[in-house]
Amino acid sequence: MPTPSLLILPGDGIGPEVMTEVRKVIDWFGAKRGLSFEVFEDLVGGAAYDAHGTPLTDETMAKAQGVDAVLLGAVGGPAYDTLDFAVKPERGLLRLRKEMDLFANLRPAQCFDALADFSSLKRDVVAGLDIMIVRELTSGIYFGEPRGIIDDNEGGRVGVNTQRYTTDEIRRVARAAFELAKKRGNRVCSMEKANVMESGILWREEVQWVHDNEYPEVELSHMYADAGAMQLVRAPKQFDVIVTDNLFGDLLSDAAAMLTGSLGMLPSASLGAPMENGRPKALYEPVHGSAPDIAGQGKANPSACILSFAMALRYSFDRGDEATRLERAVETVLAQGVRTADLMQAEGGSPASTSDMGDAVIAAL
Amino acid sequence: MPTPSLLILPGDGIGPEVMTEVRKVIDWFGAKRGLSFEVFEDLVGGAAYDAHGTPLTDETMAKAQGVDAVLLGAVGGPAYDTLDFAVKPERGLLRLRKEMDLFANLRPAQCFDALADFSSLKRDVVAGLDIMIVRELTSGIYFGEPRGIIDDNEGGRVGVNTQRYTTDEIRRVARAAFELAKKRGNRVCSMEKANVMESGILWREEVQWVHDNEYPEVELSHMYADAGAMQLVRAPKQFDVIVTDNLFGDLLSDAAAMLTGSLGMLPSASLGAPMENGRPKALYEPVHGSAPDIAGQGKANPSACILSFAMALRYSFDRGDEATRLERAVETVLAQGVRTADLMQAEGGSPASTSDMGDAVIAAL
Ligand SMILES: CC(C)[C@H](C(=O)O)[C@@H](O)C(=O)O
Ligand SMILES: CC(C)[C@H](C(=O)O)[C@@H](O)C(=O)O
């Protein structure tokens, strides 16, 4: 079997510094566990714009299509806020998602016991929380045509975006959610606004169809997305797997991540169809953003990006055992009390640096 | 001056029983404060469908256009879940909003001190919370064309909805937000997804334009809606007025309402342009829904609907003094420990009924 390949795209802000720690972890798996990777590195987002005038070059896009998995840090920052829409850092990320057809975005919202008190929610509401949000990632209002800003010829303008979902797009992400549920709590809650949007009606009907025809043994419920936002705040532990569209998934998964008090800890996987070698197209990235306010200061928490590599071990490289090893190491480090600044209350002593945290994880492996 | 007129639409589920209490309050203001209203009552939602086969008749629509303010209970329920989209109870409410052109939906998210412990969030995160969400209510993806479900002629279907915002639509709701901010904390935060949607770019630019040209003295910030969902969970007190579009406003205002622990307490006002008599077109309704699980049992909390009438006193009838009197009465009742079932922890003694609560408010007036 050929050596598996990884493309690393550190991106902007804290992306490069957290990725340095992930590379240490990758090297450790090569040296100690005989798990070698061919690693490439390239630019994305603002960094690619600075070098090439585009947030993602065709060359980088081609490389991403050719590897077994892509690992991304973060994109964006205020330096790029005034750029034209077409060359914003985010467009690089969206192009990767779209052209690799990464339709299932897996966002675990997990509350690490050592961090439960760090949540703005009461301990008993979040302790032990472990839900999985499956967000559709390649369609909906993010990508639908027509779109744009047009002049109305009377001095005004009209901003237009289109939500468009097909039967196939809904069914394939629903399948991903049911498959995950089978390995977890066996429950899926689907969220849309079928009371207001026809695309929500289709969403509900097609998810129900997949359930009735292919996964009748999994428990399925439906909830309006506004009620879903409420219930996530009120009693998040009622959920196991949530499946929802691109836009609702963006808001709901961020809210869910924040509930846990562990924002700097949360990874994500974006998966597409299987490639010739049987592995799914895949991109892994932390849920947090580029955090420009602390970039370059060695303050960032590398855990989310390290745990994103753990997801790669599980979903791309079929090494759930090694993924669990890495996840346990991160939990051990937390239990030891190692804390980057984001994991500390206001007066909590002196924080661990980005590299302290990375080193501690390696020591715990 | 002619007697001001009110159209009462109790609607479905707990709507009728909470509205009974509001009528007691209205009668009290007539008898004791010389504030008389001509009150009409009619059907909306599932109740209108049952009687007339449509969730809102043209006659009711015309009445709503002719009165000074509309007070609505709630619409919807599982009995109507399988109805066609066009006659769903929600369509009655959406028609009212659209034809009355109620573009500014004001949703205060306020944490009543006596209820702070009832929130799933820690007391210090929510105690004293008092934010105002201004949601655009007559445009965006709720109403944009084209929309529908179409067959793709290959056995599949496509669900389509369109988000469309014009310069004028954005500016008028932005003005409503800035006006409110001037009477409150003087700060507006506008939320969109300008990194992903062109309609979000237009939103950001037009809100900024209204600020720079008409309200430079108000502090304006912009936030992506996903980050907004996070920040509402993390530290909601950072906000004063939030202005956002119809769909984001639906999710964000529900999440904000749930934060307070006071869902059964929260009112809303939906305002349009001034009528000939200078009063804005207006509809008032509680944030909570029709709660079919407890309907008809005398368990519902009438406070949100009573406080919606207080908003009517303030925004439609220019009686901020009487609105404050009514709001204080509700707070007094809470401080006295009167609690409907929704305001009690699991083992909390025996709850007040819907009419107990209404009577207590009147006694406190
Ligand atoms: C950066 C941005 C384009 C992106 C999104 O909106 O999808 C982000 O918020 C996310 O959730 O990954
Ligand atoms: C009932 C429904 C149509 C409505 C909406 O989506 O606007 C409700 O959720 C609300 O927020 O008032």
Task: Describe the protein's architecture and organization.
The first copy, chain A, is globular and about 55 Å long. Chain A folds into 2 domains: 1-108 and 264-365, Isopropylmalate Dehydrogenase (3-Layer(aba) Sandwich), CATH 3.40.718; 130-259, Isopropylmalate Dehydrogenase. Chain A starts with a strand and ends with a helix. In chain A, the strands form 2 sheets. In chain A, strands 2-1-3-12-11-4-5-10-8-9 form a 10-stranded mixed sheet, sandwiched between helices. Chain A has a two-stranded antiparallel sheet with strand order 6-7. The first copy, chain A, is of the alpha/beta class and 365 residues long. In chain A, helix 1 crosses helix 10, helix 8 runs parallel beside helix 9 and helix 11 packs across helix 12. Chain A is built from 12 helices and 12 strands. At the A-B interface, strand 6, strand 7, helix 7, helix 8 and helix 9 of A face strand 6, strand 7, helix 7, helix 8 and helix 9 of B.
Strand-residue proportion of chain A: 15-25%
Give the ligands present: 3-isopropylmalic acid
Number of strands of chain A: 12
Largest sheet of chain A: 10 strands, mixed
CATH topology of the largest domain in chain A: Isopropylmalate Dehydrogenase
Q: Please compute the radius of gyration of chain A using only Cα atoms.
A: 20 Å
Strand order of the largest sheet of chain A: 2-1-3-12-11-4-5-10-8-9
Kindly provide the name of the CATH class of the largest domain in chain A.
Answer: Alpha Beta
Give the termini distance of chain A in whole angstroms.
Answer: 26 Å
Helix share of residues of chain A?
40-55%
Helices and strands of chain A, in N-to-C order? EHEHHEHEHEEEHEHEHEHEEHHH
Which two chains form the greatest contact, residue counts included?
A-B, 60 and 60 residues
Q: Provide the structure class of chain A.
A: alpha/beta
| CATH-derived architecture of the largest domain in chain A | 3-Layer(aba) Sandwich
Binding site for NAD(+) (chains A, B): 77-90, 289-301
Main location (chains A, B): cytoplasm
Site (Important for catalysis) (chains A, B): 142, 193
Function (chains A, B): Catalyzes the oxidation of 3-carboxy-2-hydroxy-4-methylpentanoate (3-isopropylmalate) to 3-carboxy-4-methyl-2-oxopentanoate. The product decarboxylates to 4-methyl-2 oxopentanoate.
